[in-house]
Amino acid sequence: MQQSNHETTTYQENEINFVAVVHSILARKFLIASLTIFMTVLAILYVLNLVPTYQTTSSFTSPSRISVTTINKLNLTEETKKSIFSKFLTQLSSKEFQRQVFIEGDFLTLFNTNNKPINDIDAFISKNIRLVRVNSPDVTMKYFDLGFLTELPYSVTMKGVNPEAISEYLNTLVSMANSKTVIGLSKHNELKIANRIDEISLERDLLLEQAKRYRLNQIERIKEEDGQKIRQINDQVDRARYKAKEERLNQIIVLIDSAKLAKSLGIIENNFKLINDDGVKSDLTIAIGENKNLPEWYLYGEKALMQRVELLENRMSDDPFIPELVTLNNQLNEVQLNNALKTLEARQDDSPYIIEIVKLEIEKIKLKSRIVDMSGVSSMQLSQISKPPKSPNKQNKRMIVLLAFIVSFMISILLALIMDALKRNKKAPA
After folding, report:
1. Do 333 and 231 reside in the same domain of the chain?
2. CA Rg value for the chain
3. pTM for the whole thing?
4. 309, CA 20 to 30 Å: which among 223, 238, 245, 268?
5. 330 lies in the same domain as 412
């Protein structure tokens, strides 16, 4: 029973609150109507004075294979269609570049149709270029799969009140972005060529330095080998001289002994005359124990033998009596006059003897003489140029007025309720 009474009381309170709200709205109906009409009239005036806007579009796809091949012609770069197209899109999206095109293309004059003085040029430019949008492909995959397109195109759009101006600016923007991208790729190629030429020069210097060090090492090696040969030959010469000296000293002793023997036998003078007078040949022998040739002491005698001893003792050099010295001296002169060594020492430039340098020089000449013609190169393929739109963008003026009416009506009701609540609070007892 109590629960039923509670539900009846709650219902009555809700009904009273709703009635109070309705009374509050009706009490301020003139305020609500006035505010709603005022905002609606403002919306109508805004729509009537709304300037028509236009939108133009230009679309493009990635560059052709011919352009990519031309860019990579010198095999110094490894650009792909994707990388080249990405550079183009980055350039096209740059606000700084868009501002540059706007200024250099004299679009300040073209966009300022009324020739009004512009107080803030930067703000004027920013206001216009912020309406430029680079858009990803929006073609559905259905058409792509059907084969109508071989590649999804990107696009760039711009909105504005002057269709001719925005269309011309958009075409100029796309063209200059393409040109700057191609110029950048060309400069990149030129930089690669310059770097490769520097690398060739460095490689050439390294090869020359290696060749020079090898030649100097070869000279030192030859000098060391020649020094060893000279020491060996000098040792042979010394041995030959020592041997000749020993033979000469031994011969002196033998001659002295023979002279003593001749003196003891009374043979002072030589017996060549005696032998010739008797018709005795020089190969006569005498019997002294056994058959022998005639001894020197008998043939020459003491006097002649001592003269020979004196000559041998007074001899200053045995070199003329050493036959092998001629051969050894010739060998020594040949080593000392080593023509190969002198040629290596006199060489001023090793480059003609380095095959790698010849190849590097040929590559350098080719790099300097080959200029890649970038006139037909493009960083994208233009699918559609921007054309001035014939009709402005559709603007739903009725929707704008209707929204203004609904929003203003709701705001005025809310305002009426707030005012009524504030009034009741003031009348309530403290």
Report:
1. yes
2. 60
3. 0.58
4. 238
5. no
